Amino acid sequence: MNYIFHSNPTLKPSTFMLTLKRFHSILSHTSFSDSNSINHKISFFLSTQNLTLQSLLTYHALIITSGNSHNVFIASKLISHYASSLKGPTFSAKVFGSVHDKDTFLWNSIIKAHFSNGGCSDSLNLFFQMRVAGFVPNHFTLPMVVASCADLCLHSLVLKNGIGCSEVVKSLLLSMYSKCGTPLEAYFLFSEVMSKDLLSWMSVISVYSRFGLMDECLSLFWEMQIAGIVPDEIVISCIFHGFGNSLCVYSGKAFHGLSIRRNYLFGEIVHNAMLFMYCKFGLLNLAEKLFRGRLEWTKESCNSMISGYYKIGHNAKCIDLFREMQCLGIEANSESLVTVISSCCQLGATHLGRSLHCYSIKSSIDKTISVSNSLIDMYGKNSHLTIAWRIFFRAQRDIVTWNTMISSYIHNANFAEAIALFDEMLSENLNPNSATLVMVLSACSHLASLEKGEKVHLYIMERGLEINVSLATALVDMYAKCGKLEQSRELFDSMREKDVVSWNVMISSYGMHGHAKSAIDIFRDMEHSHVQPNQLTFLALLSACNHSGLVEEGKYLFNRMQKTYGLKPDLKHYACMVDLLGRSGNLQDAETLVLSMPISPDGGVWGSLLSACIKHHEYDMGVRVAKHAIESDPDNDGYYIMLTNMYSSSGRWDEAENVRRMMKERGVDKGAGWSGLKVAMVSPGLVLLSDLLMFATLIWFTRPDQYSNIKWRRKLTSKGSYRDILLPFLQTRKNEIKQRESMRSEV
């Protein structure tokens, strides 16, 4: 880091030189052996000067040239002054490292330098280094470490060294346990404190409130008042936060009334805590009444309200309140900005999200990890992957940052990029969490990449990672979609705990492979395990019956869904049932089901029935159904084409021409057919222009309804390796096109 040094503004140059001469005189005329004398004089001199960084560096240089740089007392003073002058412990660490014979006093100085500048983890690391070096901490060391680092091993060290009897140490340990969120240990220490002050009561109450343990929290609250301690606004706010965390609506309202009667509602902190409570309850009307009732809004109250709006899905109100804050000149913090950006992501308001991005840059909070993560998520979920990648590339990353970028790729169906980013994450020696692994396994499932999925599974086993329900379910899904149904079932059976998602995945896996009866057997096992099925469960079952043609079983499950479990079928369930009935030739039953639907059928439902009519050559019903389908989805070119084909097959050429004319009038264009072609290990130097034209021709002429299930996987090392494959295929397609053209000319 480059520093620009300036002279002390409070001293004129001549005065500064005189002061410097005095300091040099102290160093020159004091015997080094007379350590107490030089320590006292230098300490007095440094403490009486208004030191800037430049003057401190000058004094430090004189100390070095005079041979006093290894003096522990002087070094500790320099460490303290550097920490306060630079607002950081960088130079302090250099001074500490230059001293060879360190003592506990010097260790305390460097720990304090880091602690006073917010370096809690660095303070803890230095404390452990101090212990490894064989130094015993004293009563000055432990209060700093306990206050900055929430590590439970420190308490045992206090007891081991026999310095746990101090009331100050006990109070600080109580504060530490309150921040750790361990109620039992906090209460034990609380009972050990002889003279309990307001801070002690507040610490133990805050622990119970964080966990929502309101019986214990209120009991301590009444005991505190019996002991003669008057609660302040922080204690009252802890109580309200506790009610919010426990979701005790009626008790929270009752305490609000008690607070009004006893005049506890003083201060902004209590007001914000009540806002938090009512937002957690989902009672936005009461929260808004409290919020709007204040004559003056503060940053904290606005932020609480924004968070409340977002948690219950009122994204538009969240954005509107943020705009009001800006109009009133109220500055938003990073947490509020993250919330508003997430609201823009949910609403798809990318333009507003860009404005918030600019606002974060102007406010110098765009480098905050949480803000960067929310921006990556917003751009990624709205298909702006290039911008999302730029932010990701420049951002300071944590595990959430990596997960957000991987999720963005998966959301946009860029599964290969998601897996590549996961590999890059591992190459940087970062440890993925269960959410990362679930997403990567999902990408492997979509690509049917068994090899990569097995590598991820092996990584999990080699690292001894805990396989929770979500991760185990992702493995089951991956193996099933990659064709390893037996291995998928083995993993499913080995799961100790299964939720409804796990059962749904196994049911859909059997249905996907055409084993409808096995899917129904899994459903029966699910019922015996007392796991409540949901709508997705029955959708997977109906889909399995549809693929296997089990009409009666499908009818039974469709009725049981409604009568036994009280689940209302949605459009997907009806479309699946209509398709099941239609494929089996029960067209009348299918039409009756559509007409009796309690919800308006969409194009998908009518389209399923229309396809069945064409399959069974029921053109009269098909024409009637096609008109409903076009009315439901007027932009779908497929319905117009199917209606035209039915008119043409029935010899009703005028009606067919009218449909074509209607397509033109409505601006509906027939989409070109396309098909995916997966090519593996292509050598760029071996692909010629003629070869690329052949690939383009293949993609243009291939119809997706006939060839979408074909997966080309060839090692292309020469022209002949794929020319022999493509040329016969293209010739066949050209012959089919010629035959169709000749048939049309004959008509």
Automatic annotation (TrEMBL):
Keywords: Membrane, Repeat, Transmembrane, Transmembrane helix
One term of GO molecular function: RNA binding
InterPro entries found in the cross-reference section: E_motif (IPR046848), PPR_At4g14850-like_plant (IPR046960), PPR_rpt (IPR002885), TPR-like_helical_dom_sf (IPR011990)
Start and stop residues of the PPR repeats: 103-137, 197-231, 298-332, 398-432, 468-498, 499-533, 636-670
Transmembrane segments: 679-701
Biological-process GO terms, alphabetical: RNA modification
Family statement: Belongs to the PPR family. PCMP-E subfamily.
Protein name: Pentatricopeptide repeat-containing protein
Native source species: Cannabis sativa
Upper lineage: Eukaryota, Viridiplantae, Streptophyta, Embryophyta, Tracheophyta
